[in-house]
Design a protein that fits this description.
By secondary structure, the protein is an alpha+beta fold. It contains three helices and 13 strands; from the N terminus they run H-E-E-E-E-E-E-E-E-E-E-H-E-E-E-H. The chain is about 20% helix and about 25% strand.
Length: about 260
C-alpha cells in the first residue's frame, strides 16, 4: 500500500515539475529586432525628430510587425560635434526591450539674437503705486496618493516615475502605456530589467469616451514592489459631448417638424 502511495506522489510531483518547466519555456523572452536603413541623413538640434524614424522598422517573433511602436531612446552628440548617435527602442507585448542605433550628421541650432525694442522717451513721471499689504495666498491642496512625483532614489525597492499624470486622446485614438514612463531605478536591477517587469492595472477603452484611472508599478528580481503611480486617461472631450448634444437636438427638431406636417 505504501509503495502505491509513493508511486502516485512521484507521478504527481513529476507532473508539476513538467508544468512549471513548460510555462517557463513558453514565456516570451525574445526581444524584438529593430532594422535601421543605411541612409545618411542630417539632423539639426531642436528640429522635428520624426525624420529620424523614417524607414526604421521593427519585427517580433510573436507580435510580428511592430514598427509603429519604435521610439527614439537617445540622441548623443559625438566628440567631433558633427555627428550624433541615435538610439532606438521598442517593446513587444511581453515588455521585452529591443534596441538599435545608427550615426547621423548633426548640426547645432543657430543662435538667435534677441530683438531689442527701443522704448520711446517720455518726460511724464510715473504715477505712484499704492502699497499692498496682502499676504501671499497659501495653497493647502494635497496631491492624491499615486499622483505625486517621487525622487528617483531606491532604498531597496524600485521606484518609478511617469512623465505626466493626465493624458487626453480622441475617441478611437492610440494609447501606448510605456510612452508615459519617464524612468525606473533600483539598487540592483537595470532600467531594462524593470521595464520588462512593468505592470499596468485598470480597464480602459480607447473607443469609448470617459475617464479611466490606470496604475503603474514594477517588481524587481528580488520580488520588491515599486511605488504605485497613477495616470488619468481621458478619452474624448467637450467636442464629443457637443456632437452628441447637437445630434440629439437635430433628432428632436426632426420629430417636431414631422408632427407639424401631419
Amino acid at each position: 500500500m505504501k509503495s502505491k502511495i509513493t508511486i502516485v506522489l512521484t507521478i504527481v510531483t513529476l507532473g508539476l515539475v513538467f508544468l512549471c518547466a513548460s510555462s517557463t519555456l513558453m514565456k516570451d523572452r525574445q526581444a524584438p529586432e529593430i532594422l535601421v536603413p543605411e541612409v545618411m541623413i542630417t539632423y539639426m538640434e531642436g528640429s522635428d525628430e520624426s525624420v529620424l524614424l523614417e524607414g526604421v522598422t521593427a519585427k517580433d517573433d510573436k507580435d510580428g510587425d511592430i514598427s509603429s511602436n519604435v521610439r527614439i531612446y537617445d540622441i548623443a552628440v559625438l566628440e567631433d560635434g558633427t555627428r550624433a548617435q541615435v538610439t532606438y527602442a521598442v517593446y513587444d507585448s511581453s515588455y521585452n526591450l529591443g534596441k538599435g542605433s545608427r550615426v547621423v550628421l548633426y548640426q547645432e541650432a543657430p543662435d538667435e539674437e534677441p530683438e531689442i525694442k527701443e522704448e520711446p522717451e517720455t518726460t511724464e513721471e510715473p504715477e505712484p503705486q499704492p502699497e499692498t499689504t496682502e499676504a501671499p495666498v497659501e495653497t493647502t491642496e494635497e496631491i492624491p496618493a499615486g499622483y505625486e512625483d517621487l525622487p528617483l532614489e531606491s532604498d531597496g525597492s524600485p521606484v518609478i516615475r511617469l512623465t505626466t499624470h493626465d493624458v487626453r486622446i480622441d475617441v478611437g485614438g492610440e494609447f501606448y502605456s510605456m510612452d508615459y514612463v519617464e524612468d525606473a531605478v533600483d539598487l540592483e536591477d537595470s532600467r531594462e530589467e524593470l521595464y520588462r517587469n512593468m505592470y499596468l492595472e485598470g480597464e480602459y477603452h480607447t473607443d469609448t469616451a470617459g475617464e479611466y484611472e490606470l496604475t503603474y508599478y514594477c517588481v524587481d528580481s528580488d520580488g520588491h514592489v515599486s511605488n504605485y503611480a497613477k495616470l488619468k486617461l481621458i478619452v474624448g472631450g467637450d467636442n464629443d459631448t457637443e456632437t452628441e448634444d447637437n445630434s440629439d437636438s437635430e433628432t428632436e427638431d426632426g420629430s417636431d417638424s414631422e408632427t407639424e406636417e401631419e
